[in-house]
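Known limitations

Files may contain more than one protein. Parsers should not assume a single record per file. Below, a two-record file is shown to illustrate correct handling: read the sequence, read the token line, then continue until end of file.
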Amino acid sequence: MTAGWDDVNVGGQLKVGSGVVPAIKEGDQKINGSAFIEGPAVFGSPTHFPTTYATVNIGPLSNPDPDSTPPFVPGALCLPVSNPYALCVSDNAAVMGNLDVNYRIQAGGDLIVSGSVISNCGGHILAAKKNFDIPHPTKEGWRLRHTCPEGPSNDVYVRGKVLNRTEIELPQYWKKLVDFTTITVSLTPIGAHQDVIVKRIDEEKVYLQSRSGIPIHCFYHIFGTRADGERLIPEYEGESPADYPGNNQEYSVSGYHYDVRKED
């Protein structure tokens, strides 16, 4: 028979499980108000997790008490008007491992950030130029920094080399991803001038032609603008990214407040 209590108050330390827990100390040195739960522990809906996915499993709120879902103030801490999150942290948080937003329970999820996305111990801010910085692969005592290109259109590209062919096959997924009327092609002959030209372009291929049928040997670089979503508006009148006249959600992984920074 299981005993039940209406209210339980622990004035000192709560331990569920066994073992010495250095983080909360023991005996006379214990930290009052601290707790240890060996786990696994489930919070929220009791049936949301069909098995143990983690030490702490937090599901959607299932408490029917109306006081458990107070009306949230729009705009306060970015909380919605109703339906609170499964986890809310109002101060700094640290993740000492990988953060997976595409795990088994559902097909995937969004990573939504209202401020800057900072990685590499502060070395990379997504809102700034998109750099990576690594030890130089061939020069001792040097480093190598590259940055991503930026432009006024939502382009994708493919590159490669043509040898004794008059056609360049475009990736199959470009049919739905790219507006083929926006495709541009750059060609660089290899070894000798061949007067290579782009004869025509369709959704599947780029067709080439050379002078007097000379065998074609060249590099190619092909750009195309994405067909999904709306076109980027590179210049617009306004005082902040919030004034952008299009859909902000399409153009920023970290949220559209690129120019908002926390002052030291």
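...continuing to the second record:
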Amino acid sequence: MNPLSLTALALLLSLAQLLSPRAEACTGINLIAADGSVIVARTNEWGASDMDTHLTIFPRGRAFQAMTPGGVNGAAWKAKWGFVSMTAYGQPYGPDGLNERGLYVGMYYFPGFASYAPYIEAEASKSVSVGDLMQWMLSNCETVDEALVGLEQLSVVNVDDPRFGGAALPFHWKIADPSGRTVVIEVVEGGKVEVREAVLGVITNSPGYDWHTTNLRNYLKLSPLPAGAVALDGTDLSPLGAGSGMLGLPGDFTPPSRFVRAAAFVASARSTATGEETVDEAFRILDSFNIPIGSVMPRDMVPEGVVGATQFTSACDLKNKRMYYHTMHNRRVRAVDLREIDFATIKEQSFPLDSVRAQDVQELEVR
């Protein structure tokens, strides 16, 4: 091996060591039941540390004020609607949220492409941080269209987060409402807002959404139908088993591969009758995206308390206003019914996703 190759290898190894501890790889999908229930589901991966995710209830009428680089001096508002949100690291926002009108908002990591608007102190009253934008949509909007109209009046600015070494929080957003309309919002090139209709509700991470949809054209031959037999020089060759129509489906954990795989699985998903049945199907599909942390990170770099890169998986039924989830510690599915919450009177409160961090195992009685 020549010296140039050795230098390149050393640089690649150094880069891998810098990037590997995070393992961000969230995947989102939509499924629609025969009864019209819209199910929005996702995995949430983070390998850098335990996110300490909580389920937080925000009441109607709660006062909000956004953060900017100048402090807590951004846009101010009161919540028109109550909502339930996954929150992380002790912050009042996190990966997922569902409001009492059935609007869903999810944040997905978007490194290398997110680029927010420059902060202008004179325009602080219309400025919001990444997390504030999520809360603004959940607390103010009933529909995707309403959220997009409101977004035109806001400026999304970067507020450096000390947990990430003072770096920007690069995210894009997926929003959906009970009609089934789903869009992806990306803020790029110093504040330019791009809105894309979400294909099958699928979203992953970088690069930009238009790149992912273009890349799908490389997989047009994928099919749930088995490949046909072929005769070669008098020998008949047939598929060795089920799934031959999906030969060529990428199986790695990169965002482009997960996007293609998610689109293929949603497009070929079985029909389901109800929201509850469709939630089950969403969890089954997303099982294919669970990432064992050892597959994306050296064993000696795994942070304490992180037993899987997929820290939780959630599914929201937008019609029936229910949020479901399971975690890396306990795959028993738990749920909260927003219709049972009086958002006018309930106090803001937060619960850890796991009351006990251990798998719930049912012992069978054998007589």
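Parsers that stop after the first record will miss the second one. For reference, the second record is described as follows. The longest strand covers residues 38-45.
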